[in-house]
Amino acid sequence: MVSRGIARSTRAPCRRAGGHRGAAAAALLVATLLLPAPRLSAEAAPPRVPDAWEYVAMSPEQRHELRERVRLLPQAPRRAFDRALMEQVRSLPDWLYEALSNERVAVDCAAGRMGQEALPPPPELSARQYLERVPHQRYHFRLRARALPPQERQGYEARLAAELSTLAPWLQRALAEEAAREDARYGPVLCPAAP
After folding, report:
1. Which helix or strand (DSSP H or E) is residue 89 part of?
2. What is the model's pTM?
3. What is the pLDDT of residues 77-135, one digit of tens each?
4. DSSP per residue over 138-159, as a string?
5. Contact in structure between 41 and 77 (CB atoms under 8 Å)
6. Which of 29, 69, 129, 169 is the Cys-Cys partner for 125 at CB 3.0 to 4.6 Å?
7. C-alpha pair distances (Å), 54 with each of 79, 82, 89, 91
8. Domain ranges within the chain, ordered by starting residue
9. Which domain of life does this protein belong to (predicted)?
10. CA 44/CA 69 separation, integer angstroms
């Protein structure tokens, strides 16, 4: 008899606060406020690759968050996602591709991300393939070549110069002027130190 009275008296406050459901909801609310947000695991499924214009419609923060989610993936799905996204982004007009590239570099530099990842070596391209790239891609190839060890850099630049020497002289001058203009506009290094 006494135990029933104790049981009733301990349940009474719960009934007044909405019953057991009210207490459970309050406990859940407290738990969600106090617990840290779950981190994405490397086993998480890769996100859907947005098409080019969906990617453009995202805010810079959303694009950065997408890149951060993809960086957590294992190497094979990460590379597959990057290739698929690059196909989409390359279908955009050159000026938009350049703007998105500049945004990515600026956001990653600000977040300290660029210093953590080694730049991939620049691709070995024929003169025609080099010309098919937009100016901003050629600029990034030069940045990536500058990050190579000195001997590798000299070898890459010599091979590229030999390849470009097959072009008409006016085209060689135009590429040299473009390189000087892009370097002056964006800087000769990827993440310049803050003044």
Report:
1. helix 75-90
2. 0.52
3. 988 998 899 888 888 887 888 788 778 877 777 766 654 455 667 888 899 989 888 78
4. HHHHHHHHHTS-HHHHHHHHHH
5. no
6. 129
7. 20, 16, 10, 13
8. 46-117, 119-195
9. Bacteria
10. 9
